[in-house]
Amino acid sequence: MFDIGDKIVYPMHGAGTIVSIEEKEILGEKRRYYTMKMPIGDMKVMIPVDCVEEIGVRGIISNSDMEEVLEILSGEKSQMSQNWNKRYRNNMDKIKSGDICEVAGVVRNLSLMDREKGLSTGERKMLNNAKQILLSEIALVKNMNKEEAENLVAESLC
Predict the structure, then answer these.
(1) Which residues contact 24 (CB under 8 A, 6 or more apart)?
(2) 70-74, long-range: CB within 8 Å, 24+ apart, which pairs?
(3) Which domains, from first to last, does the chain contain?
(4) Residue 139 CB: number of other CB atoms within 10 A?
(5) pLDDT tens per residue, range 25-74
(6) Beta carbons within 10 angstroms of residue 90's beta carbon
(7) What are phi and psi of 32, to 5 degrees?
(8) pLDDT digit string, tens, across residues 108-131
(9) Which residues contact 147 (CB under 8 A, 6 or more apart)?
(10) Cα 29 from Cα 48, distance rounded (Å)
């Protein structure tokens, strides 16, 4: 159970801060929801309290764990399938896992691939989505704004 003010990660959406816990009736069903405010894009997301475990909601990582994420970004490209469809599904599974290290690996691999030969529209969209997820958690862990987080990621990818 999380409380107001807790910083959490919602897989596929990114990190944010719980700003309220409220009961809402949606489609005739009353449920309790966390309202999470994202640091990037000024978006609010409602998460059913009784589904957080199955969704994979977790607290943000520590500052020391963030150093590992930055090391992953600066690492070498890992082995990826040459088959676009397999590579896409594999990367999507990594993003859906909610594991920030897996997301960082996707950002690194797709960024390096983009530099080498460019990305398809689908993989470019995936890269942008993975980057937003990564940036939102970096912003909260490091207490940065979006631009500072983007600069940190760009420096790490060099």
Answers:
(1) 30, 31, 33, 46
(2) 70/152, 70/156, 72/101, 72/104, 72/105, 72/108, 73/104, 73/107, 73/108, 73/153, 73/156, 73/157, 74/108, 74/156, 74/157, 74/158
(3) 7-59 (2.40.10.170), 63-157 (1.20.58.1290)
(4) 24
(5) 888 889 999 999 998 877 899 999 999 999 999 999 999 999 999 999 99
(6) 14
(7) -90, 140
(8) 999 999 999 889 999 999 999 999
(9) none
(10) 12
Please compute the mean of the pLDDT values over residues 3-14 and round it to a whole number. 93
Where do we find the tokens 């309790």? 32
One-letter amino acid of 113: M
pTM to 2 decimal places: 0.90
Instruction: Please state, in angstroms and rounded to a whole number, the distance separating the CA atoms of residues 40 and 78.
Output: 28
C-alpha 109 chain-centroid distance: 15
